[in-house]
Design brief:
Number of helices: 9
Structural class: alpha+beta
Radius of gyration: 31 Å
Distance between the termini: 82 Å
Strand content: 15-25%
Order of helices and strands: HEEEEHEEHEHHEEEHHEEHHE
Strand order of the largest sheet: 1-2-3-4
Length: about 250
């Protein structure tokens, strides 16, 4: 049996170039130039006709990657910049924001609140995002302070907006985004904030404290005793009955 690694004859090369191959995503491609086993040029047979250098062995195993294959939730693709594959490893910070944007809108099982959100059609292409994110508000701060925690927000500029686009979005600090969200919807923790009611069994006086820590500091009773009383593990402690009061 002839090995695929032996030097190919002219006839064998012609046969190789007649065939259609498929990568692991099922995208067809052809070998349009065969130089050696380790040096072939392929062209993907989709509308973009992307060409790249690879090896004959990779072709047989379906390894060549097409930058126009939809690799993020079957909707997002990498694209090209100046004819070269726009790879996530070369634009790590941009990729993090781009992928999260797509995940929010298309992984509704884990992001149900994004049910009605949409994305600008061009933004499904990572290369487009890389080339145009400098037009997003807050970009210069984002560039100058990579040590901070940033997010790509869609509705601070336009409250209620549900469409991700270059014009609508902003780079904002996670902390600022959280504050803005709480301002709009209210802080759930404030709605369920607990106070401590303390009744002095000797005098009948009732006092309210903002926390168990404050109750401890004012009564000199340890927090574990106050907690046990609040959670009905004991009826009273040190002459007091403690109770949790919810706002």
């Amino acid at each position: 049996m002839t090995s695929k690694y032996h030097k190919k004859t002219k006839e064998e090369i012609q046969e190789i170039m007649k065939k259609t191959y498929y990568n692991t995503k099922g995208t067809p491609f052809k070998i349009i130039e065969y130089i050696t086993n380790g040096n072939v040029i392929i062209q993907f047979q989709d509308e973009n006709k992307f060409c790249k250098k690879t090896t004959y062995d990779s072709c047989l195993k379906g390894k060549p990657t097409n930058p126009y294959d939809k690799v993020v939730l079957n909707v997002g693709y990498h694209g090209t910049i100046n004819g070269k594959h726009c790879r996530p490893k070369d634009h790590k910070r941009e990729y993090e924001h781009w992928k999260k944007m797509i995940t929010r809108c298309h992984d509704l099982k884990n992001n149900p609140t994004y049910k009605d959100c949409t994305i600008q059609e061009e933004l499904y292409c990572f290369a487009y995002f890389v080339q145009n994110c400098n037009h997003i508000d807050g970009y210069q701060d984002w560039i100058q302070h990579p040590e901070l925690n940033w997010c790509l927000d869609k509705d601070i500029k336009f409250p209620g907006n549900k469409h991700y686009s270059i014009d609508n979005c902003m780079f904002v600090l996670n902390s600022d985004n959280t504050k803005e969200r709480l301002r709009r919807v209210g802080n759930p923790s404030e709605k369920t904030k607990k106070k401590i009611k303390a009744k002095n069994l000797l005098t009948g006086e009732v006092t309210y404290f903002e926390s168990m820590t404050q109750a401890k500091n004012k009564t000199n009773i340890c927090i574990s005793c106050i907690s046990d009383c609040c959670h009905k593990k004991i009826k009273q402690t040190h002459g007091y009955v403690f109770e949790i009061i919810y706002n």
